[in-house]
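Problem 12. The chain below contains 282 residues. Write out its predicted structure in token notation.
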Amino acid sequence: MNRKIFNLILTFMLALLSALPACMTAAAAEKPVIALGSAKGQLGDTVDISVTMSGNPGFVSANLYVNYDTDVLSLKSVKDGGLLDGVTHSDNFETSPYGLCWVNDLAPENFKVNGVLATLTFEIKKMPASGKSEITLDQDILNYDIESVVFELSKGVIEVVAPSQDSSSSLQSQINSAQTQSGGAEASDSSSNDKGSSSAQISGDSDEAEDGASSSESKGDKTEDSSDLSSADKNAVNSASGSNSSSSSDGNGLVWIIVIAAFVLLLGAALLVVWLKKRRSR
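Solution.
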């Protein structure tokens, strides 16, 4: 009887050890994700938002529904990524949600491709209250066995920035003011020397206006570049934080699997020692 119990414990331990690598591989597998890109622009600009898939476990048909604020954004065009067959995207660009659709019910097996599924082009037609407009997704995806496949969906953001000050308009205003002053000087003084002096003054004022405008434009460019760099840094930090969080979660799962396996092994070893002591005592 004791020998049978020992054999059962040993069989269980061997089965656990053989299944451990598979569990570790499954825990480390990439999560299925469909992510929307982000963009930045001013009123009247058109921006591109990509729809990217990664960690695809396999499917044959997919419906993605793009939700966006029609008061702020206008969908202008959709370009398919060419990864999947059966493209039947909606022709209606006026309403939200917009439907992206790939129907392959007769496919002999699941598609496991990854990459850019489609690119959406939006026009910014209104400034949102918060300065940003979010785009989200809903999903309805089936695999070859007509089972639902669930992806993690990541939203996109379009940031609407205010237009910079028009330096050329400021320069033209200064030149017009200088010309007006020149006309007054010419009317009050008929001397040719005074006319020459006024012309020189106009030229000097114009140069100063041009220099001031150039300096203002340069400062504006530097400020905009600094803002772009700051935004890029923030995006990089957010991306790194998300990656670290995902890695930490996967690592915790592996640790628990290893701890449980070690516990079972120790338990089996303890039972084996007890059994051997009993046998020797007999």
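Discussion. The first strand starts at residue 33 and ends at 36. Students who got a different answer should revisit the alignment rule from Section 12.3.
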